């Protein structure tokens, strides 16, 4: 009998997002400034065979040097790192969120995780997020997740957590880590958690299998096939529904007859009235924003010129818009 999967933990960099170029371009000026001796992308990728922070520390002269280099790296990531999602992964996440508790564990900063997940509409698919500035060691993060009595309560692509009934708490045998690095694989195996590797990230399929992964996906859809079997064909429903796939038309419809597109339009119009005077960042397409942040990282900058206020390519604040959108959805469902 196949053991059911109750929780899926995703690595971020190289698993959910395309990281090889984006991450290296942020790290390169840090390596030069602190004399870490990492001069090529290939050398940088090797750091992920173990814990990235441990690998950086080994390149430093003492603990103070290591603290400064690590802090500078995290600061640069917060300001300049904005990679695109791996094509196909949003649908994989939504399908798994409709039946499993999802988490993200990353060496990256929490601010980066929030930016990536909010901007791509996936923030409420995940019940837990462990960033490198909160839990640098993924073994500790996995043990913390498994020890939480409420770890069985997930999010189904909406702001609220499961509230109906008693959720089945996942254990190591029903929890799967999805990752692209051999170091993560070894950490999960040590904790007793199952591991599925992905071939599009830092390390090769052979590296991941050698480290202990039970399977390596060549395409995002293989993650679903391996974990869910024939059930992978079932489409997610409700808030987890993939936009443009379910419902009558190209936009997801709610119970009152309005669509996600309609509600988002109203939300943005409302934001125009409420917040137009506070928008300070110039309008940019996502690709241009990523290229700008990379240029700034290459120049050795450590703070974003845009400051803490972020806007979409239309000059809107994505977090405020998403919160308003979710509130309007709740009103529609209650009506």
Could you explain how this protein is built, in words?
The protein has 335 residues and is an alpha/beta fold. It folds into two domains: 7-16 and 84-240, HAD superfamily/HAD-like (Rossmann fold); 260-334, no CATH class. It is built from 13 helices and six strands. It has a six-stranded parallel β-sheet with strand order 3-2-1-4-5-6, sandwiched between helices. Helix 5 (89-97) runs parallel beside helix 10. The longest helix is centred in the N-terminal third of the chain and has 18 residues, at 63-80. It is globular, with a radius of gyration of 20 Å. The model is unreliable at 247-282 and 301-316 (pLDDT under 50).
Task: Summarize the helices and strands and which ones pair or pack.
Elements: E1 7-10, H1 20-34, H2 41-46, H3 52-58, H4 63-80, H5 89-97, E2 101-105, H6 110-119, E3 128-130, H7 138-147, E4 175-179, H8 182-191, E5 194-198, H9 205-211, E6 215-217, H10 220-228, H11 260-275, H12 286-298, H13 318-334
Parallel strand pairs: 1-2, 1-4, 2-3, 4-5, 5-6
Mean pLDDT: 79
What is the terminal separation in angstroms? Answer: 43 Å
Biggest sheet strand order reads 3-2-1-4-5-6
Quick one: CATH class of the largest domain? Alpha Beta
Structural class: alpha/beta
Order of helices and strands: EHHHHHEHEHEHEHEHHHH
């Amino acid at each position: 009998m196949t053991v059911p999967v109750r929780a899926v933990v995703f690595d971020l960099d190289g698993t959910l997002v395309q990281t090889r170029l984006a991450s290296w371009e942020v790290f390169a000026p840090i390596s030069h400034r602190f004399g870490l001796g990492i001069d090529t992308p290939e050398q940088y990728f090797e750091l992920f065979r173990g814990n990235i922070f441990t690998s950086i520390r080994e390149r430093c002269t003492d603990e103070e040097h290591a603290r400064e280099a690590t802090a500078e790296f995290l600061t640069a990531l917060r300001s300049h790192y904005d990679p695109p999602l791996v094509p196909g992964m949003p649908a994989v996440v939504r399908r798994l969120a409709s039946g499993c508790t999802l988490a993200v564990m990353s060496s990256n900063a929490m601010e980066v995780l929030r930016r990536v997940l909010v901007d791509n509409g996936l923030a409420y698919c995940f019940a837990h997020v462990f960033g490198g500035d909160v839990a640098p060691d993924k073994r500790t993060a996995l043990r913390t997740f498994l020890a939480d009595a409420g770890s069985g309560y997930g999010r189904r692509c909406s702001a609220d957590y499961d509230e109906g009934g008693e959720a089945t708490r996942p254990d190591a045998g029903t929890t799967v880590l999805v990752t692209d690095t051999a170091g993560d694989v070894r950490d999960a195996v040590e904790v007793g958690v199952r591991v599925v590797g992905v071939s599009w990230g830092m390390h090769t399929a052979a590296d991941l299998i050698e480290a202990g992964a039970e399977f390596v996906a060549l395409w995002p859809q293989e993650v679903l096939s391996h974990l869910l079997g024939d059930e992978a064909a079932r489409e997610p429903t409700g808030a987890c529904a993939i936009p443009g796939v379910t419902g009558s038309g190209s936009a997801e419809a709610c119970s009152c007859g309005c669509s996600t597109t309609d509600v988002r339009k109203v939300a943005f119009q409302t934001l125009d009235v409420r917040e137009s005077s506070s928008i300070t960042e110039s309008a940019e397409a996502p690709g241009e924003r990523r290229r700008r942040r990379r240029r700034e990282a290459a120049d050795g900058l450590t703070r974003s010129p845009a400051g803490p206020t972020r806007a979409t390519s239309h000059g809107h604040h994505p977090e405020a818009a998403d919160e308003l959108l979710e509130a309007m959805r709740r009103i529609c469902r209650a009506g």
